[in-house]
Amino acid sequence: MPTKIITYSSLAEIDSVAKAIFEFGKKTPVWIFEGQMGAGKTTLIKAICKSLVVTSNVQSPTYSLVNEYVTKRGENIYHFDFYRIKSEEEAMDIGVEDYLYSGERCFIEWPSKIENLLPTKYMTVAITVNEEGQRTVNLSL
Fold this sequence. Notes:
The chain is of the alpha/beta class and about 140 residues long. The protein has helices spanning about 15-25, 40-50, 90-95, 95-100; strands spanning about 5-10, 30-35, 65-70, 75-80, 105-110, 125-130, 135-140.
């Protein structure tokens, strides 16, 4: 299983981190983002979308569950935030499986809430924060 570790200390580095993450996982459409509240999952997704030249405003879909973005090249990106759902059935109600198996890029925050619905192949983006605020991103396919 391929893995990669990226460490960064400030937001000034986020664009290069986003590009490195994309290069590592570009062949895998579904990416799950793990990390404690405030670890920077949404910030990292925003930076990745910026590097993919998303033409719309990128923000957390905390209340809508899913936001759809389009890149300048016409590619769709689906950004999910399952923090607030109570059951996998809620995710099923929005058609999450159609998104996950569409072949389009899907970024998922709080994937543990839909664990049984995830495809067998995805990239994990696990973010940890140390006492000094430095972030370590552990990528695995």
